[in-house]
Design brief:
Length: 69
């Protein structure tokens, strides 16, 4: 019976260690996801601004035939 209790205690300790590592990993992954979310939001905002500020480049170039015609 004493051996069974020791085995159970070891299993509980092992589970607590695993849980602690998983909790730490989850926190790290959450920080990474949050950072990526901010980066994606900034990129989407930048793309929207570029779309609004550009007029397709058509107004800057006159509608003329190239010189070799």
């Amino acid at each position: 019976m004493n051996k069974e209790i020791e085995t159970l205690q070891k299993q509980v300790v092992d589970l607590e260690i695993r849980y602690a590592h998983q909790e730490d990993l989850l926190e790290q992954l959450n920080k990474i996801v949050t950072t990526h979310e901010f980066t994606i939001d900034k990129l989407v905002k930048d793309i929207r601004e570029l779309k609004l500020n550009s007029n397709g480049g058509q107004d800057d170039v006159p509608n003329e035939k190239p010189p070799h015609y």
